[in-house]
Amino acid sequence: MGNPFAQAIRQDKLIDGGHVAYRYEIRHMQHHRFRDRVTVYYDGMLLFERYCYGESAGLTGSCWATGLDEDGHPAWQNENVPKVVTDALPAQLESIDENLLRFVGSDDNWDCIEKLKKDTGYSLLRRKWRNLLGNE
Predict the structure, then answer these.
(1) C-alpha angle with apex 96: 40 to 118, nearest 5 degrees?
(2) Using an 8 Å Cβ cutoff, are 19 and 39 in contact?
(3) Are strands 109-116 and 118-119 parallel, antiparallel or unpaired?
(4) Which residues contact 66 (CB under 8 A, 6 or more apart)?
(5) Are 28 and 6 in contact, with CB atoms under 8 Å apart?
(6) Cα three-residue angle 33-38-42, rounded to 5 degrees
(7) Strands lying side by side in the sheet with 21-27
(8) Measuring CA to CA, how many Å separate 99 from each of 24, 54, 96, 110, 116?
(9) How far is 21 from 113, CA to CA, in rounded Å?
(10) Beta bridge partners of 46
(11) Burial letters for 99-124: b for 16+ Cβ neighbours within 10 Å, e otherwise?
(12) Percent share of the chain, pLDDT over 70
């Protein structure tokens, strides 16, 4: 049967028509050195970003996933990605909605912090055009 949340993302049934992506940020249960974000796009792509806190705060690295398999495992494209990022990549989607994201084996919740109407390479016009053409 597979993971219903992975199917919802692949079939463009998760993200409402007024947005191109939902951005989630992990809410750690204790102090953490990093701030992790996952952006889920309407076409199934996922972007993981890790930011460092402190004096040299900024983006540590990022990694794209081309989608999810039937069981909800992201297909991370992690060649040439720093180890500090690959060690933190979520392994399997447990549940998702517009407000909360959860991964198997994690006690931390990922809260929706932003609903994007556009992002680099993504816009509502592009989404409508793809839907009109029937592109998945």
Answers:
(1) 25
(2) no
(3) unpaired
(4) 44, 45, 75, 77
(5) no
(6) 170
(7) 74-76, 58-68, 46-52, 34-41, 21-27, 109-116, 100-103, 93-96
(8) 8, 28, 8, 9, 13
(9) 11
(10) 40, 65
(11) eebbbeeeeebbebeeebeeeeebee
(12) 76
pLDDT tens digits along 29-82: 666 788 899 998 888 889 999 998 877 778 889 999 988 888 889 999 988 899
* Token pair recorded at residue 52: 């460092």
Coil, strand, or helix at residue 36? strand
- Listed in sequence order, the DSSP H helices in the chain are 4-10, 83-86, 124-133
Tokens at 44, concatenated? 């199934």
Distance of CA 75 to the CA centre of its chain: 12
Read off the tokens for 116.
């994007």
